[in-house]
Design goal:
Layout (H helix, E strand, L loop, with lengths): L1 H17 L30 H6 L4 H9 L3 H8 L4 E6 L1 H5 L4 H8 L4 H9 L2 E2 L5 H9 L4 E2 L5 E2 L7 E9 L2 E6 L6 H12 L38 H4 L23 H15 L3 H10 L2 H10 L4 E6 L1 H4 L4 H4 L4 H7 L2 E2 L5 H11 L1 E5 L6 E7 L2 E6 L2 E12 L3 E6 L6 H6 L22
Parallel strand pairs: 1-6, 7-13
Antiparallel strand pairs: 1-2, 3-4, 5-6, 7-8, 9-10, 10-11, 11-12, 12-13
Helix pairs in contact: 11-13
């Protein structure tokens, strides 16, 4: 009996020694890395949509999925049901995405925001191309793995439907990144340091810099309504005054994208040609572009009387030597109304002379009809409406003029040069015509 047991043991040991090890197996017979893990780990098929994503041309998305530590949770998901991935192309990350926002996503402390953003591109069901077309047409809201609902209509265009198809899922290529509101709000809080502030700015009492008394809370303003305070009260005050509150519908809700509109009209000036000096003053020499964008975002409208480069080149050193002179010159060319060539010409034809308020209080700019056009200013310092309606978008109107305007009081105070009479600021009148 004992010899039989020993004989059986030798036979079993000999059989074990003859078995090939996994290292000796050819590559296609070796168990996968996930299959070698313990029984509690998740196994994934090599034909899975996740493997296809990692090997696809959506390299930026695949890299972020790995950095967000989402591979293992997604592997568990595809083992239970199919998934649909809306994959932005690489340009959506490299060119269209704000570099500061991308750095925010890659910071270790913002891992949750990165995971939320990526999971908002994955739907826990299979949506093939025909069903996707129907969902977009019917504006169907799709629930994602981040528990958000996404409606592709108006947010992103599917440019490569059914780009990758696998038994457990499908990948559709989209043109841009889908950013959930929670991630955008988290980014804004981190950028403005509101998350570490002891008292939120909106919780602090507001003091009227003119009366030094607490301001009563402003009444609720419906979206799209005009601002509740004059534009002069909304302008950035001097350094000794407290910042003015944001009035109107723009404020914290951003119903008007003033910054984009100001950038658009400055780009239009550059492409139009002949107004580079004014664009340089607005963007580089002053902060007026930022302030104009804020005012437009808060619901105000502005008409810009834009002197051309020839007129700006004739500005003397005395005009620009004092601190803040450039700002004061531009303020005198900003009218807090929306005026076009037609509206101004009709006004001066009907009333003869019209005085428009400017953002340089208390000065007004005079407009009158002259030779079939609109003439601004008084006396020798005047300018004609030369390039009408360079830019009009309903909130910002840009009218090109051929001279730099100054208030009448400043024109009289200009010192006389030793070599001759006072240097003229405006060019010789070059009259435009009204079509």
């Amino acid at each position: 009996m004992g010899s039989q047991i020993y004989g059986l043991s030798y036979i079993l040991l000999f059989a074990v020694l003859l078995l090939p090890s996994s290292a000796a197996l050819p590559p296609h017979h070796r168990p996968s890395l996930l299959a070698q893990t313990n029984s509690n780990s998740v196994q994934i098929n090599s034909n899975s949509v996740l493997v296809a994503l990692l090997d696809s041309h959506y390299t930026e998305l695949a890299e972020l999925v790995e950095k967000a530590l989402l591979l293992q949770p997604l592997e568990a998901t595809v083992n239970h049901h199919n998934i649909t991935i809306f994959a932005p192309h690489n340009d959506a990350f490299e060119r269209a995405l704000d570099p500061e926002f991308k750095r925010f996503l890659l910071e270790p402390r913002n891992l949750k925001s990165l995971q939320t953003l990526l999971l908002s591109h994955i739907v826990p069901t299979r949506i093939d191309s025909p069903e996707l077309t129907r969902s977009v047409a019917e504006s169907t809201r799709l629930k994602t793995l981040s528990n958000d609902h996404v409606n592709l209509l108006g947010f992103a265009t599917v440019i490569r439907p059914n780009d990758v198809v696998r038994p457990d899922g499908v990948i559709h290529g989209i043109e841009r990144l889908l950013i959930p509101r929670s991630v955008q709000e988290d980014f804004n809080r981190r950028r403005s340091l509101r998350s570490i502030a002891a008292v939120l700015p909106e919780g602090a009492p507001e003091v009227d810099p003119r009366t030094h008394r607490l301001k009563a809370p402003a009444p609720a303003v419906p979206a799209g309504a005009p601002p509740v305070v004059p534009i002069f009260d909304a302008m950035a005050p001097g350094p000794s005054l407290a910042p003015a509150p944001a009035p109107g519908p723009g404020g914290p809700h951003g119903h008007f994208d003033g910054e984009a509109q100001v950038k658009d009209f400055i780009q239009t000036l550059l492409h139009y040609g002949g107004y580079n000096e004014l664009a340089d003053i607005l963007v580089n020499l002053t902060s007026l572009a930022t302030e104009m964008g804020r005012l437009v975002s808060e619901g105000y409208v502005i008409t810009v009387l834009a002197p051309n480069d020839e007129a700006m080149a004739k500005l003397t050193t005395d005009r620009l030597s004092e601190a803040g002179a450039a700002e004061q010159i531009v303020y005198y060319h900003l009218i807090p109304e929306y005026q076009t060539e037609e509206s101004m010409y009709n006004a001066v034809r009907r009333f003869g002379k019209v005085r428009y308020d400017t953002l340089r209080l208390p000065h007004k700019v005079l407009a009158e009809e002259a030779d079939g056009s609109v003439k601004f200013g008084e006396g020798d310092v005047s300018a004609y409406l030369f390039d009408p309606d360079i830019y009009t978008d309903g909130r910002i109107s840009v009218q090109g003029i051929d001279g730099v305007l100054f208030p009448a009081e400043e024109v009289k105070a200009v010192p006389v040069a030793k070599a001759g009479p006072v240097a003229e600021v405006a060019t010789s009148p070059r009259r435009g015509t009204v079509v």
